[in-house]
Specification:
two-stranded antiparallel sheet; 13% strand; flat; single chain; alpha+beta; 126 residues
């Protein structure tokens, strides 16, 4: 469903070739070969989404408000599939800062995407 799709660019220059695609059903982080290729992908996806929204709006009846588009900042926990923090980026729990070891293992939160230790995972979906 393209009407709920959005693209998020990382703030850090360290991840300049990466970007995330966020939607209601699934979210994913992708990596391009270089910044130019990343921007080509981002532009192509953004154009496809804009074209889809424009075509969809043309089918709306006059005076009828079109279906709302979910904004990431306004989304409630669990409304959108999170982008998981990759294992290589998480060396410690993102809540208590305990280091991950062979015994203290990583757990990916399926609601927010953060990597947490057993003590903070709850081992259940929200």
């Amino acid at each position: 469903k393209l009407n709920t799709l959005s693209i998020k660019l990382p703030a850090s220059e360290e991840y300049e070739t990466r970007f995330s695609i966020i939607s209601k059903e699934r979210s994913v982080e992708l990596r391009a070969r270089d910044k130019a290729e990343k921007m080509d992908w981002v532009d192509a996806i953004s154009t496809a989404v804009e074209n889809f929204r424009a075509r969809k709006a043309s089918f709306q009846n006059p005076g009828v408000e079109s279906e709302g588009i979910l904004q990431i900042s306004n989304a409630q926990l669990g409304e959108l599939a999170p982008v998981w923090v990759p294992d290589e980026r998480a060396t410690m729990c993102q809540i208590c800062s305990d280091d991950f070891t062979a015994i203290n293992r990583r757990h990916h939160c399926r609601a927010c995407g953060r990597v947490v230790c057993y003590a903070h995972s709850g081992n259940k979906a929200p």
